[in-house]
Every structure is written in C-alpha cells, then in structure tokens.
Amino acid sequence: MGGNVVHDHANEEATAFQFYGSWREYAPIAFTNLLLILVTLGFYRFWATTRTRKYLWGNTRFIDDRLEWTGTGKELMTGFILAILLFALPLALLNWGVQALMLRGMAGPAFLLLLLLYASFMYVTGLARFRALRYRLSRTYWHGIRGGSDDGGWSYGFSAIWKTLIGFIPLWLLVPWSMASLWNERWRKMSYGPHPFRSEARAMPIFKVFLLFYLSPILLVILTIGLVGTAGGFIGDVFVHTNAPPLIAILMMLVIFAGVYMLLGVIALAYYAAYLRACISKLELGTIGFEFEATTSDWLNLFIVDMLLVIGTLGVGWIFLSYRHWKFFITHLEATGEIDLGMLTQSQTRELKQGEGLLDAFDVGAF
Amino acid sequence: MEEPIEGWLYDGVTARRHLVSVRREDDRLLIEGHEPVAIAELVRRGEESRPVFGKKDSAGWRLGFDQPLSEWLDVLPAHPRYGHLIDRFGLMPAVLAALVVSAAILFALYQLPNWVAPLVPQKWEQAFGDALVGDLGGRACHSAEADAVLDALGQRLSAGGRPMRVRVVDLPIPNAVALPGGQIALFNGIIQQAKSPDEIAGVLGHEIGHVEHRHVMAGLIRQFGLGLVLGGSGKSVQYAQALVDARYGRAAESDADAYAIAALTRNQISTKPTADFFQRMSRMEKSGSSTVDTAFSWLSNHPVSAARRDMFLDADTHIAYPRPAMSAAQWSAVKQMCATGKGN
Asked: Are the C-beta atoms of residues A191 and A149 closer than 8 Å to each other?
C-alpha cells in the first residue's frame, strides 16, 4: 500500500479483477429500483441504472482498489432526451416520408429516402456505441483517475456505415473483419488517465468460428428432411410420407425444430465468445494487457440460467440480469502487467455532460 | 478538537495513494501534508459501508477511511440512497407522491384529446376528413332533390345553423357515422328501415352533436396518440376503421343525445319516433334477426338504455305542435336516392 508500482501479483489474490458483490446485498437495490420505476411510469429508470452501477463498480476490485461509478441519473436522462430529439424523431419523420412517397406511387424517391434512412440508422447506432463507451470510461474512476476520449465519435459513425456494408457484401464473409476493425477504431480513440488504449484485434482468429454460420443452410436442409420424414410433405414434385404414428411424428418434429434453432443460437454464442476473447486479448493500456476467458459454454451457462431465472420468477428475475452480466464480465476479465501509479495522471479529456442515450437500452457488453 | 483518524487520499492528479491522518477543526478537516477541506465541500461517495468522500469541483479527489467513523458521521454528508429528491422525503412518501403524479399524468393523457380537439381549426379538420374519406369510396348515392333536403335538414339541426354535409352511403347497414370535417354518413339501411323522417332527424341530430362537440376530432387524436404509443404505422385505413368503430364514451353519447333533443325541439320535430327507433332496434338485436345487421347497426356503437329512450319520450311532451322533418315528397326522394342515383 502506498507504493508507486502495483501489479496484479502484488496482492495475495491471483486475479487482477475481482467481484465482491452478493445478490443478497444487491436485492434491496434491485427491488426498490423496480418499485420506483413502476410508480414513476419508467422515469426512475435512469436513477435506477445509476444506483445499480454504483453498487457493481463499487464492489469490483482492480489490483488493489475498487472501481467507482460517478455517473448520475440526470446525465442519463439528458442523454436519453437528446437522443430522442436529435435522432429518434427525425428518423421517425423520415420513415413517414418514405411511407407517404410510396403511397403516392413515387417508388424512386421512396427507395432513395429508404437508403438514406438505413444509412442514418447505421450511423446513429455506431455513434451511440462509441459515445456509450466514452461515457462509461469517463465515469469510471480508479485511484481517483478516470478515462475518456476527446473524440466525439462523429467520424466513427461513418466508419460504422461503410465497414458494416463492406462486411455484408461478399456473402457476409467480411463480417468478422468489419467487427474487429470497428472494435479497434473505437478503442484506439479511448484513453484512461494519460494513456491511450492500444487495440490490435484481427479477424483471422474468429474467422473459423464465423464459418460455422455457413452451416445454417445445411441445418435448414436437415430440418426440411426431418419435417418431411416425420410429417410427410413434398420434396420437389415427390410426396413423401411417413409410417410413424402421429404423436411420435409431432414430437420428432418439435425436437428437430428446437434442435436446429438451438444450434443456431449456440453458433452465434460461440462466435460472440470468440470475438470478445480475440478482441480483449489484443487490448492494451500503458503497460497493462487484458484477457477475457469466457468460453462458449460459460456464455451458454449464463444465458440458460438467465432464462430460467426470468421464467421461474415470472419475469421479476429480470431485475438481477445486469448484476449477473457484470459479475460474469468481471469474473472472466484478467489483466497482466504493472502500473506506475505516479505516471497514471488525471485524464485531460473533456467531460461529457450527458449519458449514453440510445444505447442504454442495450445494456449487455459494456466494454 | 478530536483525535486524528488515519485515512487515505487520492489527490485526483496522480493515482498515487497517500496515507494521511485527518483531524476535524470546526467546519473543516485538516489533512496532514495536504490542503485542508471545508466539510461543506465534501460529497459522500462510494459504498455506504465504506466512507469515502469526494470534493465538489475537484474530480478524482477522494478521502477515505478504512475504519468506522461513528463519531464523525453526524457532521459529514450522509450517503445518498435513491436520489436526492427521494432521500429528502423518504421512500414511502416518494412512492405515494409518484403514484399520485403518475395517475394524474395518465388521466391527463386520456383527457388530452378532448382538450385539444376544440383547438383544431374546422378548416384543418375538413381538409383532413376529405383526404381520409373523400367521396366515401364512390358508394355515395346522389340525387339533386334528396341531397338538398338532407343538407337543409342538417343545417337546421346544427345549433349554429352551420352547413353540414350529409351523405347517404349505399350499404344495407342500419347505421350512421360522423366523419371529420362535419361530414355525416347515413347508411342506406337506416333510411330504408325508418318508419318516419323524424327518426332520421333524430339520428342526424345525434351525429351532428358529435361533430359540434368535436368528438370526432378527439377520437382521431386519441387514435393517433395510441398509434404513437403502441407503435402503429398510422395508415389512413386504420383511421377510417377507427371512425366506424368509434365509441366516444358514455359522456359523449349523452352530450350528443342532449344535442339531438335540443335540435329537434328547436325545430318542433317530434322526438317520439326516435324513441320508437331505439325500441325497434333493441328488439331486433334481442331477437338476433340478422347477425350481420346487428354487428354493424347503430346499436353496436350506440348502446340503447331505457333511460335514453325515456329521455326522448319525455322531451316529446314539450313539443306542442310537431311538424314532420320532411314533407312526404321529400321523404320519398330520400328513400329513393340509392335506387335511382347510385354512384353518380
């Protein structure tokens, strides 16, 4: 304590990140949040998010001290209102414009306006993601030091448009490249204290997992054959029918259906898990490197328990999801290297006055 | 002066942790080796169980204590819980206050269309109505004589003597609807089953009541608002549909009834035939004669109660010298209009 240099093995604990929270301690926060959200018609949401984050951050240790969340409900509310006024309303108007043009039979202008609408939507999504990350870093304190960015994300929004498009054009083959490249672009513009983040994520390591998605047409064929085999049906001009008794046929059909959809879900999870592992492992800050170790089965486990929790409590368990996701994130996050505390000086980035607006609806995967 | 307490300090400039001993002197804290800080400048931060303080306008400055501070806690700022506003009143009073405010907001949102509708200029409503229904999909019946008769009757029944555009639609449904912009559509079904033109006058008076009270506009605004909230696409077909299905609510219906009675009385038209019409319609509904007819009939959106019928019967005793709403020749022209002038 009080030394100038800390590193993750300075402590007895073997891990640089540790979560101390307990759901019993969090429950009073979660339930009073729910109560206040209900009686304010949702308006308390911003303060609820803030209380939750204060608890989660405050119970997260990095090396030798806890994180601190300093964001406020007012900032989140301002961000939300700005996002509605500046983006959601104009997009809604544009949408009406498209409808009106189509009703008047002006297909050409309607199509152009529709393209503009999609492009604007992609721009705003990219911008929202960038600014949410920036907001969260600028409100996260450790040893009295915060992060941030001096970039407003305006040019990142354009990158989000063209890189996403390039990703889709060759039969989605470049999606991993587009995601890794956007990840790098986002993080390279962020900093913590005086240090900019370095991010060298590459698409190759996740490409193999991504190729699994191309199995989905084959899965579709299996599904069709399964359907035909159990329920009877046409393949081309040939009618195929089955000798299985109806009940068995229906059960088999359900199993095949569920199987294919679950497999698709698992592929998506496997890809997302690989993506986060690959990207976070190439992230560096000063002399610190990061690792994220959640495997596909960890993610699967997280979501299955999420689902059971929400269904088993008739929806009330929903209030514990952000707690579970943060715990999952911190438990699997690792850092190596050492920090010179004397060199970690206060961030000089401009402080944002508003919160994350559009993105606060998609709260999973803060980093 | 109290005994010093051991604590730690981040100055917000570097991440270095300073071990400090802190003493209180009146309204400020003396921090060994650092600037003293006024207690009024301190902001409570961190978790409730671990006292950490920040300093106003000094981002990153943190003074923390690893030991309990019981004897100091009364002077130092308390830990905020639900947000400053709620902490000031306490959770339960805040919840109750929020419930009252939320109920008021929901009520205001529900009533808003009724407050806004009278502010919409009639011209706009008319333009909107024309864009929405136009010529009723080409199903309107016309004949010079009957059109003139119905328009004149509409104008007579309007309290301000304003011109009404009364149309007859060639559909065998015993119903009538008020459309935006002072248009009233009578379906041919209601004309054919009417035993006297006074019944038509009663129904017309009621629909004009909806128009003049701006119930139609309020209904449209409500539909639009619901569309916004529920994410409907707001297609014109849906609005037209909503007009036909319109249930303006009990208060609006009795307003329209009162309007009709006043209009008939003013014109010395007997209100008894309208009461008889209610009677006949409800009997038809009870016998379940034709499901299609009753599903779309005037009753389907104007439920008839005994009280309603009695109101029209009572009013009739005040009409000393009733005159028919139309002459025999006029009435026959109206009855014939869909047979002769359909779709012109």
From this structure: yes
- 3-state class of B68 per DSSP? coil
**Which residues share a beta bridge with A233?**
A240
pLDDT tens string A196-237 = 999 999 998 898 889 888 877 777 777 777 766 666 665 555
Residues 6+ positions from B334 with CB-CB distance below 8 Å: B146, B149, B150, B168, B191, B197, B200, B326
- Cα angle B63, A290, A296; round to 5: 120
Domain ranges of chain A: 74-362
Interface test with B, best of A345, A347, A351, A353 (most B CBs within 10 A): A345
Question: Which residue from B198, B203, B182 is spatially nearest to B330, judged by alpha carbons?
Answer: B198
- Measured between beta carbons, the chain B residues lying within 8 angstroms of A96 are 234
Sequence-ordered strand ranges (E) for A145-301: 145-148, 191-192, 195-199, 233-235, 238-240, 283-285, 288-292
How far is Cα B151 from Cα A199, in angstroms, rounded to an integer?
77
Question: 């004309």: which residue's tokens?
Answer: B191
A146 touches chain B (CB under 8 A): yes
Amino acid making up residue B200:
I
The complex's ipTM? 0.76
The whole-angstrom distance between B112's CA and the closest CA on chain A is 18
At A123, list the tokens.
């721009």
Instruction: Enter the pTM of the model.
Output: 0.74
